[in-house]
Specification:
This protein has 577 residues and is α/β, with parallel strands linked by helices. It is built from 14 helices and 19 strands. Strands 3-2-1-4-5-6-11 form a seven-stranded parallel β-sheet, with helices on both faces. It has a six-stranded antiparallel β-sheet with strand order 14-19-18-17-16-15. Helix 3 packs parallel to helix 4, helix 5 crosses helix 7 and helix 7 crosses helix 10.
Amino acid sequence: MSHSAGRAPDPAPAPEPGRASEPDLAPEPVARTLGGLVPGPGPDGRPRPDAPLVAVTGVTGYVGGRLVPELLAAGYRVRAVARHPDRLRGRPWYDSVEVVAADAAEPAQIRAALEGVDVAYYLIHSLGTGKTFEERDRSTARTFAEAAHDAGIGRVVYLGGLSPHGEPLSPHLASRTEVGEILLASGVPTTVLRAAVILGSGSASFEMMRYLTERLPAMTVPKWVSNRIQPIAIRDVLRYLVGAAAMPRDVSRVFDIGGPDVLTYRDMMQRYARIAGLPRRVIVPVPVLTPRLSSLWVSLVTPVPGGLTRPLVESLIHEVVCEEHDIAQYVPDPPGGLVGFDRAVRLALARVQGATVSTRWSSAAPPGAPSDPLPSDPDWAGGSLYVDERRVLVDASPAALWRVVEAVGGERGWYSWALAWRVRGLLDRVVGGPGLRRGRRDPARLLLDDAVDFWRVEQLVPGRMLRLRAEMRLPGLAWLELRVEPADGPGTGTGNAPAADPGPHDAEGSWDPVAWRRPPVVFAQRALFHPHGLGGQLYWWAVYPFHGVVFGGMQRNVARAAERAERARTDLTRDGG
């Protein structure tokens, strides 16, 4: 099917309401359709020792986190480059890659990280970071380009944004275009892939469309909903990224990439509604909604905060349709063709409904989010610190309590004064924070660095401790620490048990490891706040009177939920279930 601009194909027959999966949607590595382009894994299923080495930046982001396992499946050795490598722990591929600490904006660090690399993926951009994002993107791209040239990299691959020629661009698209030009001018063979809306479970563009369509049966919309767009499935984006590593050295240029369908945003919402089994939406375009007003409206309706919705909405004022499909000369279309809009939506919904979303738009911590050390860390510099610590004995096993602790936030909420949490989340959204709508990647399981509403997982010891760092807008730094401790172990009743204690299996004579599997257990909860200036001090004392209701209620209700789960398990065992 042609990938140039043209009439959108007729919609496929609607699936049965509620149906979100098909036999052909089974996940498999994109390398399966790349034939001889990729080196392929060794007999043990792992990359061969002499396979090309690729470096991936932006590995904590939505695309980077999905690209790494695809490159491994294709037989490449992977070096994951991150400013905070510890945040990658818990990723399924962590032990299969080389992890390097480096900031792409620091010349010496990124130069060392690219040493010996054959192909480098540049997946960094400052989307939603404020008014200085253009200069930050420009400076970081130049630093990376110079480092890649000095390191003798064989190829740089960059994922940018699809934009029209010959018309003023939104700041976001203009910056993405400039970054591509900087990399192309580096002297290193460079592949710049330009994509429009990316369709995939957890992508910001998909989540924006999904929530708008699901929550608003009728809506007034800006006139840009009639602009043509050529969306592309995340699976095809990953396929092009993996295939680009094998391009001939004499190829250094921009490629437009898009799926087989050219649609308007209105068409996309209506087709999404049909696929999701929803009634047809009433969509009325009006000329008075500016991109700024539109982004504020979208941020109120969807989980995506204003800092992200504004550049995304501003990009939609352009018609973004591929002008060529030259990429097929180097990365041929898969045998079954590229993924169409309907199939991409069904695949994304299947992952959402099955809780198998591997990365989300919130996977990367927002630039400017707090990263100072916890006050108990060795490099803590001192200063005021307020602590609210609570402990309670729970008539449940450690496993039962941990299941409740690990599932906090998102749809389950915070086990206390729900109205207070909702109001705090709304206030955070008003001042530009993530609020509570960001939710969770998985309803039951957490990984290090996962976003949980307006928190982020800073430390995770499975079965023992969960430490969350606040990313809400605050006049200071805040943490919430939830621990599961033995009823007769060190720290019981004192609040002094080490947060990352190795546990009863490693502490000789501390307590009975067998008894640790049985009730009771201690649920220890600690809220910490390091104020910034007088505003931070006033904030703490203003909210302190509510701690008994919010944190005290949370502790009691978590304990009760764990005890109910323990009784249910015991009854089931007694009945022979």
